[in-house]
Fold this protein.
Amino acid sequence: MKTKDNRPKFLNLLKIRLPITGIASINHRLSGLILFLSIPVSLYFFQLSMSSKDGFNEMLSYLSSPFIKLALILLTWSFIHHLFAGFRFLLIDQNIGISLSSARRSAWFVVFAAVIVTLIISGVWIL
Amino acid sequence: MSLQAQGMRTWLLQRLTAIYIAIYSLSLIAWIVMNIPVNYSSWHNLFSHPIMLIFTIIFYLTLFVHAWVGVRDILVDYAKPSSVRFILLTALALFLTVMTTWLLLIVISLVKI
């Protein structure tokens, strides 16, 4: 028998105070969405870079413009966070680190490691 | 993949595609880091190699499947009312179809040369 579920839902992302595991999770979604939006850009750059030597150099000059560099930093964070958080979810699927304390610890690790690795990569390769 | 794909199958699909995407991306990044500064001829040689081209096609196709499942999950949670959700899901499917066509056009242009 189906009954209507009348329990209140609260999905206002701006008002929910999330625990660290929730932050890792919502950042996983946000970073995934950013990576999704970069799909056409990646195809465009792939096409351009393979078209000719001039096209390849045109791509390189795009990559050195300040606006694209900013986008690249955001993209780097998205990739690193999505990778780390995804790996964490795969471990959790395998019943590794599922206790509340270890899930919190790994979430802290993912959130901060993603930021730190992004800063290092940005400093060394992008800026 | 059908629009109704859900549950266990989608769950598994998301994880299998994730593993392939991670391996491909990290391998490509490793190649770039080892070949800095990358120039046109080394870049072009890498991607016009038939095996790399096949790996790249598989990469984009798995990425599109992964994106379909992931963005669909986000839309199902946040896009309200259901008519808006339907329009956005249709737009997503259309977008990924266009991306697939674009990818195939790029690949065809690379194979002809």
Notes: The interface with chain A takes residues 15, 18-19, 22, 25, 39-40, 43-44, 47-48, 60, 63-64, 67, 70-71, 73-74, 77-78, 99, 102-103, 106, 110 of chain B (CB under 8 Å).
